[in-house]
Predict the 3D structure of the following.
Amino acid sequence: MNKWIKLCQEKIEKRGIKNYEIYAINVKRTIIDVKDKEVELLNVAENRGISLRIICEGRLGFAYITEITESTIDYLIKQAISSAQVTTPDPFLNFPNFIGNYPIVSVYDKEIENLSLSKKIDFALTMEMAAKDYAPCIKKVRHSQFQEMAAQIFIANHHGLNFSYKRTLFSGSVLVMAEEKGEAEMGWHYAFNPFFNNLNPEIIGKKAAQLAADALGGKPIATQKINAIFTNRVMSEILQILSSSFLADEVQKGKSLLAPHLGKKIMSNLVNIYDNGLYPNGYATRPCDDEGIPQQKTILVENGTIKGFLYDSYTAAKEDKKSTGNAGRMSLEAPPKVEITNLYLKPYDLSFERLLKTLDKGLVITDVLGMHTADPISGDFSVGAAGYWIEGGNRLFPVKSIAIAGNIVDLFKKIVAIGNDLEFFGNCGSPSVLIEGVQVSGN
């Protein structure tokens, strides 16, 4: 790939283009689905490509290719120039001027080169078997999937940046159905890691089965305002909705519910939220963002006070700030924009068992339905929920067919205890939390 990048640079400079950025990627993905001990899907795909951004007379040009030859590179440059001619001049357009050392992060599993296909299939089969063997009520495993991604990323620009790195990511997911006395419940679990040997397929399968089995026999509770524990999975979903409010482009568009509160204390004193592109074994951990800015840990909320937002080079220039290393690309086919890396709520030292004792009597919410429908601008939500009722810190019965409503910021304001069970579900993570005064609609 380096020779193609060099050729691209030579051709760009011959055209008299002084401001440019080249982003290239070579990625291989494997997806394996098994069902009833048989491989149902095996997909192995390898893709590579180059995208180019240029700035001509203050105008941004963008183009990409997925087939790399000398003639397609000529086409790439021609298309970028053509697109620049029809865009509006923008004084804040720029490419990072960073030449230096990048943080050392462990995100590439060298063993991937020796990892056999049979071992990957065994991983998916083991998840399925672990789920089926969990309890007699587990009747079906609807989905047992292994995924593998190995990529090499290259970034170069006119300032002299020329950097590349490798990363891997492995994941497993299981969806199961439990049946008992004519009732059926679903359970799903997912885990990932940059290193294959750090994933345990049995744990993934058993967790999915446990969630399904534990939900059997659920019933609604009376409409009331109660204290409740939101599990790490549920809080991660809520944090995902809140995450857009930390993005500088949403702030600058007036679409962030947190923008008016910068520097203000609007959450519980216990709440600390970070975005950390260097988090060990994180979903989005890497040495630099997709513009070549080194990754870092950014404090977003400190002891309940909104401390800042996340920037790429463009949004930072609009406020005369520095990028926080949060430029990301959804794909090769799109220019970078502001994205979170590994966003999480800081854990404390309370075990989940201690959280239950602290709650004593109330609701543990293990699942929410439709949290994606929450309004990201106002923070208001009304969603279905399920979980279980506890008294004396002990589980009594499953709860379902209820709804919870409120405001996301208010939830963070009402947090009175935070656990130590931080877990990431993709690029958002949270420990379980105890929240007071949750509005529940039931019978």
